[in-house]
């Protein structure tokens, strides 16, 4: 009798696992848009902008239309990773308009500080973003060219134990 109960319990566990795997096939993975931007001459180490300053490279993610943390680097400025957020955005098939707040991090040699940028970036025929930015860094006005790309993050295909696909690559 105990053996029968154990087999029945094991059967229930296997049925629950199979049911969960079947439900996984119905799970929708979030859409992740990735925007990579290059702001020319956006940061400067001198007291005033010189026109030959450091580019700020940003990566933005939008998951199911929710903006995530903005991550930036500027190797000509310092070795730190700079963090920020999207304050306001308008995204459509023709252009990208953004307002970004950044905390430019210091390192052992170069001080940091707050920065804000407003970008207007029309989408080109080949899909690239090409436009301008204006903003402030170290309480000084900065302007320049901005370029970038917009894409969907690739998602690897996952398969249930019964061979059914539960997600496809986004690209």
Provide a quick synopsis of the model:
Helices cover 13% and strands 50% of the residues. With 171 residues, the protein is mainly beta.
Features of the shown structure:
single chain, 171 residues, mainly beta, eight-stranded antiparallel beta barrel, two-stranded antiparallel sheet, 50% strand, globular, disordered N terminus
Give a verbal description of the structure.
- The structure is a single chain.
- By secondary structure, this protein is mainly β.
- It has two domains: 2-29 and 155-167; 32-152.
- The protein contains one helix and eleven strands, in the order αβββββββββββ.
- Strands 1-2-4-5-6-7-8-9 form an eight-stranded antiparallel β-barrel.
- β6 and β7 (113-122) form a beta hairpin.
What is the topology?
Blueprint: H1 2-24, E1 32-43, E2 54-63, E3 66-67, E4 70-73, E5 81-91, E6 95-104, E7 113-122, E8 129-137, E9 140-152, E10 158-159, E11 165-167
Antiparallel strand pairs: 1-2, 1-9, 2-3, 2-4, 4-5, 5-6, 6-7, 7-8, 8-9, 10-11
Approximately how much beta-strand content do the residues carry? over 45%
Q: Name the strands of the widest sheet in spatial order.
A: 1-2-4-5-6-7-8-9
Quaternary class: single chain
User: What characterizes the major β-sheet?
Assistant: 8 strands, antiparallel, barrel
Q: Which structural class do you get from the secondary structure elements?
A: mainly beta
What's the Cα radius of gyration?
A: 24 Å
Q: What is the terminal-to-terminal distance? A: 55 Å
User: What's the overall geometry?
Assistant: globular
Q: How many separate structural domains?
A: 2
Query: Mean pLDDT across all residues, rounded?
Result: 83
Low-confidence stretches: 3-10
């Amino acid at each position: 009798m105990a053996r029968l109960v154990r087999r029945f319990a094991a059967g229930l566990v296997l049925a629950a696992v199979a049911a969960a795997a079947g439900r996984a096939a119905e799970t929708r993975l979030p859409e992740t848009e990735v925007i990579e931007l290059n702001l020319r001459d956006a940061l400067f180490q001198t007291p005033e902008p010189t026109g030959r300053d450091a580019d700020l490279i940003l990566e933005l993610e939008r998951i199911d239309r929710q903006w995530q943390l903005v991550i930036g680097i500027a190797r000509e400025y310092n070795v730190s990773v700079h963090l920020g957020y999207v304050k306001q955005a308008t995204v459509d098939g023709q252009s990208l308009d953004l307002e970004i707040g950044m905390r430019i991090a210091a390192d052992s040699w170069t001080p940091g500080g707050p920065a804000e940028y407003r970008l207007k970036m029309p989408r080109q025929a080949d899909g690239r973003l090409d436009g301008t930015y204006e903003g402030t860094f170290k309480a000084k006005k900065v302007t320049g060219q901005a370029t970038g790309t917009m894409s969907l993050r690739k998602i690897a295909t996952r398969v249930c134990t019964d061979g059914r696909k539960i997600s496809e690559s986004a690209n």
